[in-house]
Each structure stands twice: as C-alpha cells, then as structure tokens.
Amino acid sequence: MSKRPASHHLRYREPAHEGEAIEYLCKRVIYRGRSRFQAIDIIETQLHGRMLFLDGIAQSSEMDEFIYHEMLVHPALLSVSRPEAVLVIGGAEGATVREVLRHQSVRRVVMVDIDGQLIEVCREHLPGWHAGAFEDPRLEVVVEDGRRYLERVEDSFDAILVDLSDPLEGSPAVYLFTSEFYRRVRERLNPGGAAAFQGEGVSPQQVELHARMVNTLKSVFPVVQPYPYFIHSFHRPDAHILVPLDPAWSQAKFVESVRNCGLPLRYLSPETARAMFCLPPYLWKAYERYSRIITDDDPSPERKAGG
C-alpha cells in the first residue's frame, strides 16, 4: 500500500480548470516574481524536476518538456524542403529554438516574445531547456508582441512556430488565436512552408478552445492536421496543430521525412509519426459542435471546463 506524503512537504497547487486542482510536491522555490505581463514561478518538484508556471499554470517540466517541444517543432520543419528561415512566436524558455537549431539547413531563427523578463529568467534558471541556444549566432531575439511583429515586418519564413501560453481573459495572447492573426501567419510563410501551433488541451472537459482553433485555422489554411499527445506533468492530453501550405502534403511523405531526418529524437519516430494524426471520435464530434470561428471581434475564451 502506498503511503501518503508527509504533510511537511512543500506543495504547489495549480487550479487546472473549474472543479479540479493539481498539487505538486516540491523541493524548493527557485524563482518567484512578476513581470509586466504575468506571475512567474520556477519550482523544483520531486517528480518532474524543475517546472515553469505562468500565472499559476504549468507550462513546462524538466522531465518531459522534450515531448512537447519535439512535437511542436519537427512536424513543421520536416514538412518543408530544407527550411532555412524560421520564426518562433513565444517560446521564452528557449527549448523551441533549441529544437529548431538542430536542423542543419536552418540559417536564421527569429524568436519573438512579448515578455523580456521571462526570457531572462528562463535563460538563467532553465539552462536545460535552451541548452545554449541563446548564444547561437543564427538566433535573433525580439522582445515584442508577436502579432505586432508580423504586421510590422515584411520578412518571410519557411516555417513559423507559435508557442503561446493559454489565452486567459485579459492576456495579450488572446488576439494571437484569431483568424486575423492566422492570416498574418500565412502571409509571412514562403510557398511550400508550414506552421505549427500550440493547440491547447484536448481532454473531454477542456476541448472547446482546441476545437475552435482547428476550425479557425481551417478557414485560413488548405491543410490542418491536429495531433494529440500526453504530457504527464500537465496531467492531461494536449495537442499541437500542423498547417502545411502544400496542398499535396501527405502523412506518408511526412513519415519518410521523419525516417530520414538523421536527428536522434526521443519521442518523434516513424512509428509515432504513423499514428500521431489518428484522432478519437470525441474530437471529431467536438470539431462539429464548436464550429464558431475565433475573430478579433469574438476572441478566444478563457481556458475553462465545458468540453
């Protein structure tokens, strides 16, 4: 019989969504502070190693962040022939650009994040995430709202990766989930390019925002491929969404790209690539039920229960 943890252990409590909370047993608080935009906590947990929390919500953990970041980055880059220029919107921990820079064809990476303080905190306290990526001469870091950046510059990219935190009510991220933003992303993609988006939770209790994202992306892009995965430290299934511009994109070609990429990946493989786009029936029903498009006039809802 398992024993209850000792009551004197430090605990970090995350309000997962309405009617539920997750509690992490912790060793120590590494950093606690607040930027202009959000509360930032970095906690050393007993099971997951270091974890980053923003406004009390888990964003990433030392033990399984590789799953999240491999699954965000490589499907998009492996859907493009020799990607050279890549834009990352969000991703302050540096792990997204770490994975991008593993591709030898990449010559330029621009990382745009609104929260410069968060970038510096992660750079200091989460070295395993960025693994020195911030020192790579191919990387340019821009502290700016991601949408404003897309509207300001005329640069184009072979791949765009949108690695945002949840669009909580009042957050500037809310307007980076709308059809207007997605059109800006498409305009900045080179022909044959691809984008990938952090696609929110896909548990039956939380699926509305994900479903609305998928339908909104379908109003802008010719091919939209959501794919779920499970992160133990999040205690829920999540998803990313791949949107290649090539209308002839196929899963078979993608599997071969994974097979031939030459990268020693820890999660993505030809076997996982063959299965990753298989969706359960409840998700297909959610796409039918939550069909309303996210727009600037009707932005994405605060993360909440109600799938």
From TrEMBL:
<comment type="subunit">
    <text>Homodimer or homotetramer.</text>
</comment>
<comment type="similarity">
    <text>Belongs to the spermidine/spermine synthase family.</text>
</comment>
<dbReference type="InterPro" id="IPR030374">
    <property type="entry name" value="PABS"/>
</dbReference>
<feature type="binding site">
    <location>
        <position position="172"/>
    </location>
    <ligand>
        <name>S-methyl-5'-thioadenosine</name>
    </ligand>
</feature>
<protein>
    <recommendedName>
        <fullName>Polyamine aminopropyltransferase</fullName>
        <ecNumber>2.5.1.16</ecNumber>
    </recommendedName>
</protein>
<dbReference type="Pfam" id="PF17284">
    <property type="entry name" value="Spermine_synt_N"/>
</dbReference>
<feature type="binding site">
    <location>
        <begin position="145"/>
        <end position="146"/>
    </location>
    <ligand>
        <name>S-methyl-5'-thioadenosine</name>
    </ligand>
</feature>
<feature type="binding site">
    <location>
        <position position="93"/>
    </location>
    <ligand>
        <name>spermidine</name>
    </ligand>
</feature>
<feature type="binding site">
    <location>
        <position position="113"/>
    </location>
    <ligand>
        <name>S-methyl-5'-thioadenosine</name>
    </ligand>
</feature>
<keyword id="KW-0745">Spermidine biosynthesis</keyword>
<feature type="binding site">
    <location>
        <position position="38"/>
    </location>
    <ligand>
        <name>S-methyl-5'-thioadenosine</name>
    </ligand>
</feature>
<comment type="function">
    <text>Catalyzes the irreversible transfer of a propylamine group from the amino donor S-adenosylmethioninamine (decarboxy-AdoMet) to putrescine (1,4-diaminobutane) to yield spermidine.</text>
</comment>
<dbReference type="InterPro" id="IPR001045">
    <property type="entry name" value="Spermi_synthase"/>
</dbReference>
<dbReference type="GO" id="GO:0010487">
    <property type="term" value="F:thermospermine synthase activity"/>
</dbReference>
<comment type="pathway">
    <text>Amine and polyamine biosynthesis; spermidine biosynthesis; spermidine from putrescine: step 1/1.</text>
</comment>
<feature type="active site" description="Proton acceptor">
    <location>
        <position position="163"/>
    </location>
</feature>
<keyword id="KW-0620">Polyamine biosynthesis</keyword>
<dbReference type="InterPro" id="IPR035246">
    <property type="entry name" value="Spermidine_synt_N"/>
</dbReference>
<dbReference type="InterPro" id="IPR037163">
    <property type="entry name" value="Spermidine_synt_N_sf"/>
</dbReference>
<dbReference type="InterPro" id="IPR029063">
    <property type="entry name" value="SAM-dependent_MTases_sf"/>
</dbReference>
<feature type="domain" description="PABS">
    <location>
        <begin position="9"/>
        <end position="247"/>
    </location>
</feature>
<dbReference type="GO" id="GO:0004766">
    <property type="term" value="F:spermidine synthase activity"/>
</dbReference>
<feature type="binding site">
    <location>
        <position position="69"/>
    </location>
    <ligand>
        <name>spermidine</name>
    </ligand>
</feature>
<keyword id="KW-0808">Transferase</keyword>
<dbReference type="Pfam" id="PF01564">
    <property type="entry name" value="Spermine_synth"/>
</dbReference>
<dbReference type="GO" id="GO:0008295">
    <property type="term" value="P:spermidine biosynthetic process"/>
</dbReference>
